[in-house]
Structure formats: C-alpha cells, structure tokens
Write a structure and sequence with these properties.
215 residues, 8-stranded mixed sheet, 5 helices, 14% helix, flat, cysteine-type deubiquitinase activity, Ub_carboxyl-term_hydrolase, Papain-like_cys_pep_sf
C-alpha cells in the first residue's frame, strides 16, 4: 500500500509556532510504500445512548464507511509517545485473498475495552476498485471480493468466546463452527454478528459470481 504521513506540531505550542513549524521540511508530507498482511478497519467510537427502556443501543456502521480509510483522501491522526502524525492510505495491488481485521479492542493502562458496533456488510460483491491508486485501477482487472470466512467474538473482552462462519464452496452453504459443534447458518444471520476478522476471496471470472449466488 501507499502511505502518506505528515508530522504534526505539539498541540500545546502557541499558534504562531505551529504555523512556523508546518512550513519546515520536517513537517511536510512524506510518501512511502509498504506491503501489508491484512487491513485494519477502525470502528467509530461507540456512543453511550440509551433508549426509553434504559437499554444501551448497539450502534451500526456500514463496511464501506470504515473502508474509506484506504481511499487516499481520509486522514487519521496517530499518536506515539513523543510525536503525532496525520496519515492516509491507498492500495497499490489487490491480493487473491484479503483479510479484514476489525479493531474491536483497545487497551489502556488499566483495562481492555471492547467496541460492540455491528458492521453492516454484504456477503458478496464487495468492489474495492475505488481504494486503488489511479495507476492500479488501470491495470487491476478483478477488484470484486466475496466473503468466505467470518470470525466473531462474543461477550466481554476478557471472558468472551469465538465463533467462525465458513462458506462451503462445493455446496455454497454457510456453516457456523464453535468448538466441536458445526451447524448450518443463513447468510443473512452472519451480518448480525460482532465480526472481528474476515477473509475475502477475489473473483477471477463470472463463474466465481455464479458459484456464490447459487446460479
């Protein structure tokens, strides 16, 4: 992927000093390229709203909202021990299999928190062309992906359990696996889960589309 990084002045500095620093070479945007093993998708901060029955409302976010991190325009601030940076990302190539890591857990000095936000995602036909650079868009023929596995975390961050949804390619059916138990599951039920890790397979032809739609 292509990474654009720009150093930020310390927030406590006077405005005049910040402006002066932003003109220096150290604070100009730098571009680099690096391989990736998976794409980390950041969830929005979960609101603490309650409905009229005083029950917490579980927020939802579309998959494409959290994929905008890789459109080459969306900037995000990253903080280190000493410095802060603004970064934006764009993809240079698309692999045959793509892993999404949905960042549900955050740690601080005292405890681990879990974000319960539900990600709304389609099971098939996720086109990632718009997240490629213009040069890559001209050369990449196949940019559409179908979900083949979905790892779910249920429960509290320190006491929870895991389930996995797997597509059986031979029949086109989905199965849920938890420990030694294997059961059928409807595709529409998969999207209601607290997805944690997903594996997507790139389509190579129209035949791939037929196999996922059951045609």
């Amino acid at each position: 992927m292509r990474i654009f990084s720009k150093k930020l002045p310390h927030p406590d500095l006077p405005p005049e000093e910040k402006e002066a620093l932003l003109l220096t070479e150290d604070y100009q945007e730098v571009m680099s390229e690096a391989p990736f093993l998976y794409l980390t998708l950041d969830l929005p901060t979960a609101p603490l709203y309650k409905d009229e029955k005083e029950q917490l409302i579980i927020p939802q976010v579309p998959l494409f909202n959290i994929l905008t991190k890789f459109n080459g325009n969306t900037e995000k601030e990253y903080k280190t021990y000493k410095e802060n940076f603004l970064k934006r990302f764009q993809l240079l190539r698309l692999p045959p299999y793509l892993i999404f890591y949905i960042k549900r857990f955050t740690k601080n000095n005292f405890f681990v928190e879990k974000n319960p936000t539900i990600v709304n995602f389609p099971i098939t036909s996720v086109d990632l062309r718009e997240y490629l650079t213009e040069e890559a868009q001209a050369t990449e023929k196949h940019t559409t992906y179908d979900l083949i596995a979905n790892v779910v975390h249920d429960g509290k961050p320190t006491e929870g359990s895991y389930r996995i949804h797997v597509l059986h390619h031979g029949t086109g059916k989905w199965y849920e696996l938890q420990d030694l138990q294997v059961t059928d599951i409807l595709p529409q039920m998969i999207t209601l889960s607290e997805a944690y890790i997903q594996i997507w397979k790139r389509r190579q032809s129209e035949e791939d589309e037929d196999s996922h739609t059951g045609a």
